[in-house]
Design goal:
With about 400 residues, this protein is an alpha/beta fold. The longest helix has 24 residues, at about 1-25. The chain folds into two domains: about 20-195 and about 380-399, 3-Layer(aba) Sandwich (Rossmann fold); about 200-375, 3-Layer(aba) Sandwich (Rossmann fold), CATH 3.40.50. The chain has a seven-stranded parallel beta sheet with strand order 3-2-1-4-5-6-7, sandwiched between helices. A six-stranded parallel beta sheet has the order 10-9-8-11-12-13, sandwiched between helices. It is built from 17 helices and 13 strands. It starts with a helix and ends with a helix.
Length: about 400
C-alpha cells in the first residue's frame, strides 16, 4: 500500500509538471523544416517511418529529421547519420521537439504524448501510416470484446488521437473502409505503404547480405519464415508448429537447403527464448528490427493471422496460413473476410500444413494473389515512399 501511494504521488506530480510544460510549449514557434518520425516508440528502425526517412535522406533536403526511440543502443551503428535520434527517456526534450516540429509521422497512436497535455497546433501536420496492411483480423474499435475489456483511458486517448490526425495513409480501397471504422481516421490518403516498396526492388544483394550476415547464414541457404501473431490474452497454447516437418515438406517440394527463421510479434518477443528451441536449422529472428528486410530474403512464409503476410504476398513467393485456433480466434477477435478468400493455403494442423506445402501450385497461387489485390483495390507499386514525401514537401512549402 505504501509503495502504491508513493507511485501514485510520483506519477501525479510528473503529470502535473508535464501538463504545465506542454502549455508553455504550445506558445513556441514551429520550425517548418523539422520532421518527427515515430515507430511504436521503441521498436527500432523499421516500418513505414523508416522508409519515409530513407526517402527524405535520399533527396538530400535541408529538413531536420528526428527519430524517437527508447532503445539504449549505439545509435551510430543502427541509424543513418542524417537522423537525429532522441531517446524518449528524455521525455521533456521529446515533448519540446514535437511541439516545435512541422510534421509528425507515427505508425501507432500519439497517446503517450497527448495524454500528458501535448497539443497539436493547427499548422502542424500529423500523418499516421499505421503498421498493418490488408490484414484479416479486426482492429481496435471494431473488436467488441476488446472494447468491453480495455481500459477506458485507452478509448479516450485513441479517440482523441484520431481527432487530431490530419491524414491516415492507406494502400487500398479496403483499408480506407477499415481505417475509418476500426481506427476512426476520417481523412485518408491512398498513397501506398512506404515499407512495401522493398518488394519491388530486384535482387538486392545488400539487403540479403545484411540479414544473412546478422545470423551467419550461408548464402546458399533458403529461408522459411514463421511469423505468428499474438493473442489478445497473450496465451501461448497455440504454439505447436513442427519445424522439422515444415522443413521436410519444403525440401521435398522446393529443393533442399532450407532453414526456419522464427520471428515472434513484438508483443511476444520476450518469450522467444522460452519457446524457440534453436538448432542448426532453426533461427530466432525476433530481435531483428525490420521484418520487411527479413521477408525480402524469405523464400516461404508461414503465419496465422499476422498482417505481415499481406505485405509478403507482393513478392508473389509462397505463403501459408497455419492456425489451430481459427474458430476460437474468430469468435474473440473477428475477421474482416473469410480466410478462404486469401491466396494462402490454410492448415489447422501440422499434417495439413505439410500437405499444403507438398501440393503447392504456384500458378494457381499467383492467380489468387492477382484476384485478391484487385478485389481490394490495392495500389502498391513500389513508389509509395516518393508519394508520401512529395505530399510532406508540398505541405511544408505551401504553408
Amino acid at each position: 500500500m505504501k509503495y502504491a501511494l508513493v507511485y501514485w504521488i510520483k506519477n501525479s506530480f510528473n503529470f502535473f509538471v508535464s501538463s504545465i510544460f506542454c502549455q508553455f510549449l504550445y506558445l513556441l514557434p514551429i520550425n517548418k523544416n523539422k520532421i518527427i518520425l515515430i515507430n511504436y516508440i521503441n521498436k527500432g528502425y523499421c516500418c513505414n517511418p523508416k522508409y519515409i526517412a530513407e526517402e527524405l535522406i535520399k533527396r538530400n533536403t535541408n529538413y531536420k529529421i528526428i527519430w524517437f526511440t527508447s532503445k539504449k543502443i549505439d545509435y551510430s551503428k543502427h541509424f543513418p547519420q542524417k537522423l537525429k535520434v532522441i531517446n524518449i527517456s528524455n521525455f521533456f526534450l521529446a515533448l519540446y521537439e514535437l511541439a516545435t516540429a512541422k510534421v509528425w509521422i507515427n505508425n501507432a497512436r500519439m497517446s503517450l504524448f497527448t495524454k500528458v497535455g501535448l497539443r497539436k497546433k493547427p499548422n502542424q501536420l500529423y500523418l499516421n501510416t499505421w503498421h498493418g496492411s490488408l490484414g484479416i483480423k479486426k482492429m481496435d474499435f471494431q473488436v467488441k470484446a476488446f472494447l468491453n475489456s480495455v481500459n477506458k483511458d485507452w478509448i479516450k486517448d485513441s479517440t482523441y488521437d484520431a481527432k487530431i490526425c490530419n491524414y491516415g495513409i492507406t494502400n487500398s480501397q479496403f483499408e480506407q473502409e477499415v481505417f475509418r471504422e476500426g481506427l476512426l481516421y476520417k481523412n485518408l490518403l491512398n498513397l501506398g505503404h512506404p515499407r512495401n516498396d522493398i518488394f519491388f526492388i530486384s535482387n538486392s544483394t545488400d539487403i540479403k547480405q545484411k540479414v544473412y550476415n546478422s545470423y551467419n547464414i550461408p548464402e546458399y541457404k533458403k529461408i522459411i519464415l514463421y511469423a505468428p501473431s499474438f493473442r489478445d490474452n497473450m496465451r501461448m497454447d497455440w504454439f505447436k508448429a513442427d519445424f522439422g516437418k515444415i522443413k521436410q515438406a519444403a525440401d521435398q517440394r522446393f529443393g533442399k537447403n532450407f532453414i526456419v527463421a522464427v520471428r515472434f510479434h513484438p508483443r511476444l518477443k520476450e518469450k522467444s527464448k522460452q519457446y524457440i528451441n534453436k538448432s542448426e536449422f532453426i533461427i530466432d529472428m525476433s530481435e531483428y528490427d525490420d521484418i520487411q528486410e527479413i521477408m525480402y530474403c524469405t523464400d516461404i512464409m508461414i503465419t496465422d493471422y499476422s498482417s505481415c503476410i499481406f505485405d509478403f504476398l507482393l513478392s508473389q513467393k509462397p505463403g501459408f496460413i497455419y492456425a489451430e485456433d481459427i474458430s476460437k480466434y474468430n469468435n474473440e477477435r473477428g475477421f474482416y473476410y473469410r480466410l478462404e478468400e486469401t491466396p494462402f493455403p490454410i492448415a489447422e494442423s501440422n499434417e495439413q500444413l505439410y500437405n499444403n506445402i507438398i501440393t503447392f501450385d504456384e500458378t494457381v497461387y499467383k492467380m489468387k494473389i492477382e484476384h485478391f489485390l484487385d478485389a481490394r483495390g490495392c495500389i502498391e507499386d513500389g513508389k509509395a515512399s516518393k508519394r508520401v514525401v512529395d505530399f510532406i514537401s508540398n505541405f511544408i512549402n505551401e504553408v
